[in-house]
Every structure is written in C-alpha cells, then in structure tokens.
Amino acid sequence: MIRRGITDRMMLWPIVWPLAMGIGGAFGQDVPPSQGAVARVATSAASQTFWRIAEDAAMLAGGLSVQLDKTFHREGEAMVVRIDIPRAGYLNVLSVGPDDVPTVLFPNRHHPDNRVSAGSLTIPNAQMTFELKAMPPDGTTLVAAFLSREALDFYQNGDGERDGEGAMQDPFARLSIVSRNQLRQLAGKSFAVLPRAAPLLGGMAYGGVCAAASDACDAASMPGRSAGFEDRLTPGILLESKDGVSLPKGIKPRPIHEKGIRLTKVSEGFMPRLYNDAASYCSIAYGHLVKKAPCDGQEPPEFRRGISEPRGDSLLVQDLRRAQLAVMGMVTTALSDGQYAALCDFTYNVGVGNLQKSTLLKAVNAGEHERVPFQLRRWIKVNGKESAALKTRREREIQLYFESSPIPKIPPADEDLSVIDIRIGE
C-alpha cells in the first residue's frame, strides 16, 4: 500500500543505441529498464521510433486537448499535464524523450485506476501521490494522451519489474511492444471513421527541458538535431509559383475540417527547429519552406530561435491556403468535408499544377468517385523511386475521402493504374 504523500521523482535512464528521432528532454521513471525491454525498444526503433509512433497515433486519433503548465521547464522543476476529456473512458498518458524511451506517466503504481469521467483532468492533482519532474537529457519532449472506449491499460501491460503474480511493481512502466501495436491499430481505426464512432481519442503537447544552470530556457537554448527529417519531402505546392490561383472577389476559402489538418500534420511531421529536407532546402515546422537553399544562419530570427507547435500550426494553415483555392477553383462537383480535405492534402503534397492535369481531377469532376482510390494510389513515386511514406499518405487520403463509407476495391475496366512521380506528374 502506498502511503499518501510519497512521491516518485521520474527520470529517463540513458539507453545506449543509435537514435533515429529528434531532440529532447524527458519525464521518466527511476527504475532502469530490463535488458529485455532495451532489446525490444531497440529493435522497434530500427524501423520506426516510439516518438513517431506516439506522435502519429495522437494526430490520427485526435479529439483530446493536452496542455502543459508551461512549455519549458528547467531540470528538477515539477510538470503538470492538463487534459480536456470529452467523454468517459480509459486514459493513458505517455512521455517520449530524446532517447526514444516511452514512459507511461498515467496510470501508474500510485494511481492504477485509469477510468476517467468527462471533464478537465490535471495530472498530478491533489488526490495523486506522485509528481512529474523535468530531468535530463535536455531538449524537446513529447507528451501524448489517449482515451479509449474499452479498457486499455498501458501501465499493467507495460515493460518493467513484476512480482510473482505478474503485477507491475515499477512506479512507472515502459510502453510495451504489444501496447504500441494496440495504439497504432486503434488510432488507424479512429481516423477511418466518424469521430462519434472512434474507439480512441488522442492529443499531445511538446515540452522542453533546459539545464538548471543555463541562462536561457527556450527553444534556442536547447540542443537540437533533425535526424529523421533529412528525408522529408518539400511540399509540392511550396515549390510552385504563387501566381495563378484565386477565387472570385468576396469568396473565402472553404475551411479544412480538423481531421484533414491532422492528416497533413501527421504526413509532414513537426520539427520546431530549422532543418534541411531531402532537397537540402531550409525548412521548419510542418514542412514550411524557409528558402530553396540549405540553412546557413541567415534565416529570420524567429526561425533561428525555434518555434512552438501553435506557431507551426499557423504556418501550415497559411501554406495550405493555396491548396484550398486550387481545389475550390478546379473541382466542379459537390464535395463532402472529407473529400475536400483529402484533395487539399493531395494538392499540398503534389502541387497545384499536378492536380490540374491529373486524371484524378477528371474523375472527381465527372462524379466517378469509385475511381478515386485507384487514381490516388498512382501518386507514390518521387524522383524515380516508389516511396513507402507516399503510399501511406495516399491510403490515409483515401480513408478520409470515403470517411465511414465503403472504399471501392476493384478498379473499373481499363482504369490507368500506372505509377506517377509527384515531381513530374502526368
């Protein structure tokens, strides 16, 4: 039995293996991982990092507002997570730091019951006998929350020391491979259906950890790296001239609904600092193009300091505007919110010119929606090579286009299925 008032200071122990993802600091636990846990995490990181898995799942599921008490914490400072919960369910909260170790913050040994009611929840609160503290390594940390309809417990199903009966003994567990797979599966299902039918809701916040003795505590003062972003593609729409796309005077762009924005975010990924993408173009946030040249320290001061996710969101909204104008101006048939959002994401990725000349646009304007999945799946090549990331993006666009409706599985007779390079077009 845990005595009220006992606290566990949490830290992430250093793990020695090549890092595939980003920068960061962490909120972790005070128990070193077992060798088996390290091996499993290392194996997973070789294919996709826990950071990216948690980030993608939170974006795909959506529906939760997650906030930290402040964006930047110095080492040793207490951290508070606030979550707005729209419906009753089972809550799991994760923290992933720069070493890609996923720690289950909630539930935990001191508060094992993760059944929650609708309303605002603060972790920890006065009824919880633990605290969260910012610990090294310094940098950016991802905090992601997930609310499931059915019972889901990442703590009891996590990696850590157990007693003879199999009960978790560590104060805070590591996310297990089994739970990781559950998370990915539920998030994917949630994205494919209407929000009211989603089995999982998700949300996230980015925090920063600074050295206790440092003069400044902001994005610019934290160590940074862009591992995993050097292969990111420049959005096709940002490579084009900004001329030639407009709407009649007085007509405003149709908003992209929230799930569509999440699709573009999960496809682009968020980087708060400047990085060079696959074309060696200086970029930041969700693929925002700073200049068609490598970063050289001459960028605007705002970008050199690093930006917050909300600022990155505003840049994405700005960059998506041209895609909205193109879809509204070129599509002549009525579109649902999901169809419109899917086409905006496609246009952002491949460019306005490629949309305009595409068989996809002709099929949409003819009302031949049964052809759309097969036309979208053609756009999976870049610079002469097929891309797994583009294949995933196209499938998600198809899910959004046919949101909660059956997706055609058999192409019409004589449908052109040849693969298209997004940098060349048809």
TrEMBL record:
SUPFAM superfamilies assigned: Lysozyme-like (SSF53955)
A Pfam family annotated for this UniProt entry: Phage_lysozyme
What's the Enzyme Commission number for this chain?
3.2.1.17
Molecular function (GO) terms for this protein are: lysozyme activity
Q: Which InterPro entries match?
A: Bacteriophage_GH24, DUF4384, Endolysin_autolysin, Glyco_hydro_24, Lysozyme-like_dom_sf, Lysozyme_dom_sf
Q: Which reactions is this enzyme annotated as catalysing? A: Hydrolysis of (1->4)-beta-linkages between N-acetylmuramic acid and N-acetyl-D-glucosamine residues in a peptidoglycan and between N-acetyl-D-glucosamine residues in chitodextrins
Q: Its domain of life?
A: Bacteria
The top EC class, named as a word, is: hydrolase
Domain called DUF4384: residue spans: 74-150
What's a GO biological-process term for it?
A: defense response to bacterium
- Give the keywords, sorted: Antimicrobial, Bacteriolytic enzyme, Glycosidase, Host cytoplasm, Hydrolase
The record's section on PANTHER family has: LYSOZYME RRRD-RELATED (PTHR38107:SF3), PTHR38107
| Family membership noted in the UniProt record | Belongs to the glycosyl hydrolase 24 family.
* Name of the featured protein: Lysozyme
Question: Species lineage, top-down?
Answer: Bacteria, Pseudomonadati, Pseudomonadota, Betaproteobacteria, Candidatus Accumulibacter
